[in-house]
Amino acid sequence: MNAETWRGCGAPRQIAVLTVWCLRTLVSDRRVVVFSVLQPLIMLVLFTQVFGAVANPANFPPGVSYVDYLLPAVLVTTGIGPAVAAGASLVREMDRGALTRFRAMPLGLHWVLLARSLSDMSRVGVQSVVLLASGALLFGFTAHGGVLGSVAALLVALLVIWTLMWIFIAFAAWLRSPEIMQSIGFVLVFPLMFASSAFVPVANLPGWLQVVATVNPMTYAVNAARHLSMGEPVGTSVLLAITTSVGLLAVAGFLAARGFRRPLTR
Amino acid sequence: MTDPIIETHDLTRVFDGVRALDRVSLSVPRGTVLGLLGHNGAGKTTLVNILATLLPPTSGTARVAGLDVVARSRDVRARIGLTGQFAAVEEQLSGMDNLVLVAKLLGARSAQARRRADELLERFELTSAAHRRVRTYSGGMRRRLDLAVSLVGRPDVIFLDEPSTGLDPASRIELWRIVAELVTEGATVLLTTQYLEEADRLADTITVLAGGSVVATGTSAELKSVVGKRSVHLTLTTAADVDAAAAGLRGLGMQVHTDAARATVSTPVDAASDLAVVMRFLDEARIEFKELDLTEPTLDDVYLSLTADRAKAEVRG
Ligand SMILES: Nc1ncnc2c1ncn2[C@@H]1O[C@H](COP(=O)(O)OP(=O)(O)O)[C@@H](O)[C@H]1O
Ligand SMILES: [Mg+2]
């Protein structure tokens, strides 16, 4: 009879259980798995073929090919999609299923967001590894900065994407409208991706776009990842990318948690 | 007696000018069922949401298990189970996985969690569907699973917001059996309903909400006796008798309702003396009756009269 009564558990266990749950949900959809692996490959094919055709080899140092220049950037830009999607799916799922139940349970709701972001990031991590491996094996990518440089580039890219993801999660937690999220996605994705140093050097962009690219945080992330991967002197790029990321991450995380905790109204 | 396990004082919630709840004070003793009766928009969900810590009140206080729902929300959440109006289960997980997830989040180890899930699946007759995705469940199965998931942690207080809405009659009766069982196990249940029959069947105490305010509280019998009157229904033999009886009783100051087709005359009676007056009148007027029924008011009558009063008051106010 009067068996166990459970009243809740500590944060580490909540995070672990929730993350495993999110991962299982993610993996249970086979399409997601297949698409996750295909997406970076498609990006790499498209970008190397489209931009590679017009990229001027004279712009690169000897021995450096366009794919060497491009791949660290794609490492960063592949994450934009999942970051936007994290916000969109939160809006979609916020008022149904387990996410509504959790509100009446002894949980930290912010751990729910953390778990979701961790599981989404694991997907980005897999994509990045696929990208690096296929780049090296199929597209002739050479990591001039060595394995260590590539790993460092990967870590910086993941940190930046995680930050971007939290920014979209914060938008989702406050705005709670699929339409607005979609608009924000449309408005931000392309400038973030293309008005940056990702595909061509900023100096080669038209003047006004140079201004945009200079304030685009993606530029710093791409520069840092590129310097690390290509084994160039990193200068301040890595420090800049990491500090801005961590700063934004803290703000976005705080706002996301605050926004998500507000009651659902229907 | 012990302290009430749910207690609210002047609880008010305003949504952009709409008073969804207006100074609601109530008190629910441990181990009882409170039925919150009201039409759509009466404020039932708002009240449940405040008690379940999902929504802060605009003013007033609420305590569950002695804990303030605002200041001690997390501790309150550890003691309650909520089954809302819409099933809060994951569609792409199985019933088993839904239960295990919640059990683990509440602190159960894997083996314990699975044991508890098995137990609840069996109790809610979901064992055969345990490993199917919830997506494939019928509406009734989904509701049962939702309720099962709210019970995983053996909460002290269970909130059921319109639990039988959308259930077929068989599932509804099954649900009633489960609620009764929960109470015998010591839980306190607060359920909302639009069905008078349900409140009458399940609730020890009924609180009638209308326009965000409590318009009556009591046992079903108390509500009937306070508000409703018993009525005498006479079935007479001829249309002439019906007219004569109606005129005569009106002459005695009674409210009379006639149904010519069925040759019936009805009149509310307050006390046994009223009934005697009716009988004496019939005797003196030499009107014969085929049948005489004395009926208790239904909860429906109670509800209609209470909410009608309230609506009138609002029009005036
Ligand atoms: N989030 C909200 N925003 C604005 N008005 C609301 C909101 N929730 C409820 N209401 C209003 O409050 C009143 C009570 O609603 P509710 O508690 O859902 O009633 P019930 O559950 O009894 O049908 C209704 O008039 C409803 O329109
Ligand atoms: Mg409701």
From TrEMBL, chain A:
<protein>
    <recommendedName>
        <fullName>Transport permease protein</fullName>
    </recommendedName>
</protein>
<feature type="domain" description="ABC transmembrane type-2">
    <location>
        <begin position="31"/>
        <end position="263"/>
    </location>
</feature>
<dbReference type="InterPro" id="IPR051784">
    <property type="entry name" value="Nod_factor_ABC_transporter"/>
</dbReference>
<dbReference type="InterPro" id="IPR000412">
    <property type="entry name" value="ABC_2_transport"/>
</dbReference>
<feature type="transmembrane region" description="Helical">
    <location>
        <begin position="32"/>
        <end position="54"/>
    </location>
</feature>
<dbReference type="InterPro" id="IPR013525">
    <property type="entry name" value="ABC2_TM"/>
</dbReference>
<feature type="transmembrane region" description="Helical">
    <location>
        <begin position="151"/>
        <end position="174"/>
    </location>
</feature>
<feature type="transmembrane region" description="Helical">
    <location>
        <begin position="124"/>
        <end position="145"/>
    </location>
</feature>
<keyword id="KW-1133">Transmembrane helix</keyword>
<dbReference type="GO" id="GO:0140359">
    <property type="term" value="F:ABC-type transporter activity"/>
</dbReference>
<feature type="transmembrane region" description="Helical">
    <location>
        <begin position="186"/>
        <end position="209"/>
    </location>
</feature>
<keyword id="KW-0472">Membrane</keyword>
<dbReference type="Pfam" id="PF01061">
    <property type="entry name" value="ABC2_membrane"/>
</dbReference>
<feature type="transmembrane region" description="Helical">
    <location>
        <begin position="69"/>
        <end position="91"/>
    </location>
</feature>
<keyword id="KW-1003">Cell membrane</keyword>
<keyword id="KW-0813">Transport</keyword>
<dbReference type="GO" id="GO:0043190">
    <property type="term" value="C:ATP-binding cassette (ABC) transporter complex"/>
</dbReference>
<keyword id="KW-0046">Antibiotic resistance</keyword>
<feature type="transmembrane region" description="Helical">
    <location>
        <begin position="238"/>
        <end position="257"/>
    </location>
</feature>
<keyword id="KW-0812">Transmembrane</keyword>
<comment type="similarity">
    <text>Belongs to the ABC-2 integral membrane protein family.</text>
</comment>
<dbReference type="GO" id="GO:0046677">
    <property type="term" value="P:response to antibiotic"/>
</dbReference>
From TrEMBL, chain B:
<dbReference type="InterPro" id="IPR017871">
    <property type="entry name" value="ABC_transporter-like_CS"/>
</dbReference>
<feature type="domain" description="ABC transporter">
    <location>
        <begin position="6"/>
        <end position="236"/>
    </location>
</feature>
<keyword id="KW-0472">Membrane</keyword>
<keyword id="KW-0067">ATP-binding</keyword>
<keyword id="KW-1003">Cell membrane</keyword>
<dbReference type="GO" id="GO:0046677">
    <property type="term" value="P:response to antibiotic"/>
</dbReference>
<dbReference type="GO" id="GO:1900753">
    <property type="term" value="P:doxorubicin transport"/>
</dbReference>
<dbReference type="InterPro" id="IPR005894">
    <property type="entry name" value="DrrA"/>
</dbReference>
<dbReference type="GO" id="GO:0016887">
    <property type="term" value="F:ATP hydrolysis activity"/>
</dbReference>
<dbReference type="InterPro" id="IPR027417">
    <property type="entry name" value="P-loop_NTPase"/>
</dbReference>
<dbReference type="InterPro" id="IPR003593">
    <property type="entry name" value="AAA+_ATPase"/>
</dbReference>
<keyword id="KW-0547">Nucleotide-binding</keyword>
<keyword id="KW-0046">Antibiotic resistance</keyword>
<keyword id="KW-0813">Transport</keyword>
<comment type="similarity">
    <text>Belongs to the ABC transporter superfamily. Drug exporter-1 (DrugE1) (TC 3.A.1.105) family.</text>
</comment>
<dbReference type="GO" id="GO:0043215">
    <property type="term" value="P:daunorubicin transport"/>
</dbReference>
<keyword id="KW-1278">Translocase</keyword>
<dbReference type="GO" id="GO:0005886">
    <property type="term" value="C:plasma membrane"/>
</dbReference>
<protein>
    <submittedName>
        <fullName>ABC-2 type transport system ATP-binding protein</fullName>
    </submittedName>
</protein>
<dbReference type="InterPro" id="IPR050763">
    <property type="entry name" value="ABC_transporter_ATP-binding"/>
</dbReference>
<dbReference type="GO" id="GO:0005524">
    <property type="term" value="F:ATP binding"/>
</dbReference>
<dbReference type="Pfam" id="PF00005">
    <property type="entry name" value="ABC_tran"/>
</dbReference>
